[in-house]
Amino acid sequence: MTQQLTPAAAWLRLQEGNDRFVASDVSHPNQDASRRTALVNDQNPFAVIFGCSDSRLAAEIIFDLGLGDVFVVRTAGQVIDDAVLGSLEYSVSVLGVPLIVVLGHDNCGAVTATMNAIDTGVMPIGFLRDLVERITPSVLTARRSGVTEVNATVIEHTRQTSRRLVDSSRVIADAVERGNVAVIGVSYRLDEGKAVLVTGFGAV
Q: Which residues does Zn(2+) bind (predicted)?
């Protein structure tokens, strides 16, 4: 395992792929049989994408990537739990990934459900309640700033989640402090397919 890219170079590569996707000029790299064979015994992804589980947010598609390019972790509303933290720490400490992308998106159902629960005072049942409880601090932070629209709230949630990753994981925080890793928050616009940087920790 070798770290080939700086955090800034990794983000640039993602931007270039997203630009191709937006322009409908995708190259579908690293998706052939030879790439598949080359990855049988090892992997060296250049970024980890921690995004929402939404079906419209497939990381390898929107960044025009292929097999072995990115390590992907997804939960509804990009909610952090112990398994997420363990997966992200693995990507940093074992795989040597230089960039963690927290990927939110417009019209997020989990954020919308949280906003509705706060407005009505009615919490959902089952484990959906756990998602809502974990997103609530972000919604409340947004509202303290006068933000009540869902897409602006998603951006605030992406910012808060990025900060929470660094605050929650000593492994990630130390890597950011050393300059080996950057954590960035990115908001994806469903209508145009554009991924936009909204926050960051470390140099990109």
A: 52, 54, 105, 108
Spell out the SS3 assignment of the chain.
Answer: CCCCCCHHHHHHHHHHHHHHHHCCCCCCCCCCHHHHHHCCCCCCCCEEEEEECCCCCCHHHHCCCCCCCEEEEEEHHHCCCHHHHHHHHHHHHCCCCCEEEEEEECCCHHHHHHHHHHHHCCCCCCCHHHHHHHHHHHHHHHHHCCCCCHHHHHHHHHHHHHHHHHHHCHHHHHHHHHCCCEEEEEEEECCCCEEEEEEEECCC
Q: What is the pLDDT of residues 157-185, one digit of tens each?
A: 999 999 999 999 999 999 999 999 999 99
Against a cut of 0.85, is the pTM above it? Answer: yes
Q: What is the pLDDT of residues 108-157, one digit of tens each?
A: 999 999 999 999 999 999 999 999 999 999 999 999 999 999 999 999 99
Instruction: Report whether 108 belongs to an annotated binding site.
Output: yes
Nearest Cα to 182, choosing from 124, 126, 114, 101?
101
What are the structural domains of the chain?
Answer: 7-201 (3.40.1050.10)
52 annotated binding-site participant: yes
Query: Sorting pLDDT into bands at 50, 70 and 90, what band is 4?
Result: confident
